[in-house]
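Title: Request for sanity check on DUF2189 domain-containing protein prediction

Description:
We are preparing a figure and want to confirm that the structure record we downloaded matches what your pipeline produces today. Could someone re-run it with the sequence below and paste the raw structure tokens into this thread? We only need the token string, no images.
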Amino acid sequence: MQRSPAVEASRRFRPRTIPLSQPLRWLERGAVDFTRNPGPGLLHGLLAALFGGVLFVLAGQHFWLVAGAFSGFLIVAPLAATGLYAVSRAMERGEPAGFRAALAVWHPRNLRLVGFGVLLALAGTGWVMTSGALIIGFAPAPVLGPKDFLQVVLLGDGWLFEVWLMLGAILAAPVFASSVVAIPMLLDRDEALPVAIYTSWRVVMEDPVPLALWAGIIMALTALGMATALTGLIVILPWLAHASWHAYRDLVELPPEG
């Protein structure tokens, strides 16, 4: 059977094998980038925290919607951090790495990032609807706030929280595999969206255990940021974004351009 041109094109980008501890190195390098040039990162983190605050206000008494939206945020956040990948790349190249570098990636003609953003937004919306339907339909009592979510869903009788987590993981795993390398690659290389996605999947299949650890670190740190009344996201989101750039650089052996 003949392979698609996108699959064949993705084979020019060879996955690198990494040790299990490599995600910790990415965190270290991400912290260095963030502290060297904190302005763009703090702006991204502040906007993320403000967005979370707006979600709380708009959701009102429908905390089930907030729970789904915040977990859906994990799906869309890598794309929102694209500007910080550009900052890390600029510092790597010895180029100016200020706000202009972060904003330049959102050029209206960059339809590949826009297209990927639409796909991620659809995935996030699907999870918000699924999460809401599950909690409304199967929670034994109304879930109107964080305390209700803790008592009814997390600590309540039955398997509701486990099922909620399992469904979230079923959706998040392929999204993570599709985007962990693809988004920085779309910034860095003039490649078609399917090529970047196939490359990302090949990277994950090559080293599933370190990448699973990386996904767990991202989820744990993001949860920590949310647990601090969102203020932790101001630092955690840019830290993870810069670290994700270094993950891409370690995971993919790039062919010469041209």
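Thanks, this matches our download. DSSP finds 13 helices and two strands in the chain.
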